TrEMBL record:
The organism's place on the tree of life at top rank: Bacteria
Signal sequence range: none
Source organism of the structure: Polaromonas aquatica
Protein name: MaoC/PaaZ C-terminal domain-containing protein
InterPro entries registered for this protein in UniProt: HotDog_dom_sf, MaoC-like_dom, MFE-2_N
Amino acid sequence: MNLEKLLQLKFPELEHTATPRDAMLYALGIGVGDRPEEADDLQFVYEKGLKIFPSQVNVICHPGGWIMNPELEVNWVKLLHGEQAFEILKLLEPGKTYVGRYKITGVLDKGPGKGSLLFMRKELREKGDDTLVSTVDSTYFLRGDGGSGGTLDVAPAPHALPERTPDTSVTISILPRAALIYRLSGDYNPIHADPALARKAGFERPILHGLCSLGVATRAILQECCGNQPERLRSLQLRFSSPVYPGETLLTDIWRDGQTVSFRARVAERDVLVLNNGRAVIN
C-alpha cells in the first residue's frame, strides 16, 4: 500500500437516481420476498406504495473498484470488509437523485504481516438542496498491507453485547444465488462470483458480500423490533467476524434495551459467528 497516495486520493462526487427497479433489485438481493404471504414485505419489492429498504444507503453511489487502482499499491485480493455503520436522517425515496461524497478518515497499521485497517466515510445528500440524508462509515481490513504506515494509533472499541441470554432470535435462509443477485446493486468484486478468484483470496468458493449479510440482519431487526416499519430504524452498526456463503442460514440473536437493540448472527449450518457487536437504534 502506498499510504501517501492513498491519503491524497480525491473521490469524485457520485450521483445516483434511486429508481424503483434499483430499490426492488436491492431488496431481492438481501432476500426480501421469501415470505410471499407477508404483505409487509411487498412494500420493498412491489411498485405500488414502494419504499426503499433502509440499508440500501450502503450501496447508493457506490465508488466501484477504486481500491484496485495500481497506483495505490493495495493488495486488494486480500481485502476484507471489517465493520460497517450507517445513520439514517431521512429515508431514501424512489425517483430522487442523491450525491455521495467519500473521504478516507484514517489508516491503522497493525504491523508487518498483520495487515492494516482503512476507515472511510460517505455522506449521502439529496441533489439540489444538499440535504444530508445518511452517513455511512466503513472499515476495511487490508490483510496484505501491514507495515505500510498509518495515521491512527487505536481503533474505535466495538459495541459490547449484553451478557444475558438473547431476548429473541430470527432465522433467515439465504439463496444459493444471493451473491449473484446482490452484486447487481453495485459491488462487482469478483470474489463474490468467480470461484478461481475466491480460492486465490483464501475461500473455498465465492462468498456473500458482507453488506448483503448486513442487509439480512437488518431485515431481522425490522421484522422483530420495528414491525417492518423502515422509518423506525435510525442507525445500525456491526462487525464482520467471518464470511457467509450463499445458501446458508443466518440466525440473528437480538437483545432489546429500550431504543437500543444489540445483535449478533451466526451461520446455523456451521455454527460460526459471522456478524458481531451489532447495535441498532430504533424509534
